[in-house]
Specification:
globular
Length: 235
């Protein structure tokens, strides 16, 4: 039982660290890249010619490593999760980790309007669609959404990670609203603060990862639950 609790705590800490590192973009408020946070996208912070890009690349790579290690801890034998919802959440967070590492290592080469000789590209949810960076970003976002949905279902229907039932659900709702904001505004003319919407979305994902980590730390998986004490009667 002690070994199970230690393993649970380690997995929870790894997820919390992934959430903290995924919020490395907050450092831009101190490092001052010059990008407008209301209108710029976070992928622009680690584009090839940006100052301090190594800070954000390191943050994303660490995020991916911690997420992958947490996923492995949940699914490798002896498994910590045994129902389809929690297994889906664990696999999805592993995919998120791998995609986030790929995203960091294959950044946008340049920013139109900022870097000399950079071709003008349309601004939208996925700028510079010709680059594989767009694919890895999409996979990472989809994967963490799948993890959030699956983990929430595990919390409500299978009694896994009970802390996710309320606080985690509230954070998930904020992420969904920010995503709807982005999807809707991207198809309309005008200034709808897409940069702010993305920062709320990614900030919510970071908080949710930390929340999931704390929920796992507090969780008593089936292998750690003590057996029921018999009262000596038979049915």
């Amino acid at each position: 039982m002690r070994a199970t609790r230690v393993r649970t705590a380690v997995i929870g800490v790894l997820l919390a660290l992934a959430g903290i590192c995924y919020s490395s973009w907050v450092l831009d408020y101190f490092l001052h890249s010059g990008l407008d946070p209301m209108r710029s996208f976070l992928s622009e912070l680690d584009s090839a010619h940006m100052p301090h890009r190594s800070v954000y690349v390191t943050g994303d790579v660490l995020t991916g490593i911690f997420a992958l290690l947490a996923a492995l801890g949940l699914v490798v034998p002896p498994m910590m999760v045994r129902n389809r919802f929690s297994i889906t959440a664990a696999v999805a967070i592993g995919v998120f980790g791998a995609a986030t590492i790929s995203d960091a290592l294959m950044p946008i080469e340049c920013l139109a309007g900022r870097d000399p000789n950079c071709p003008d590209q349309s601004r939208g949810l996925l700028p510079q669609l010709h680059h594989i960076h767009a694919l890895t970003s999409s996979v990472a976002v989809i994967a963490i959404f799948v993890a959030m949905v699956a983990a929430s279902l595990a919390a409500w229907r299978r009694r896994d990670w009970p802390w996710l039932r309320f606080g985690g659900g509230l954070v998930f709702a904020i992420v969904v609203l920010a995503t709807v904001w982005m999807l809707a505004a991207d198809r309309l003319d005008g200034d709808y603060r897409l940069g702010l919407a993305q920062r709320i979305q990614v900030g919510g994902m970071s908080v949710w990862l930390v929340f999931w980590g704390l929920a796992i730390v507090r969780w008593a998986p089936p292998t750690a639950r003590p057996p029921a004490v018999s009262d000596g009667t038979s049915s």
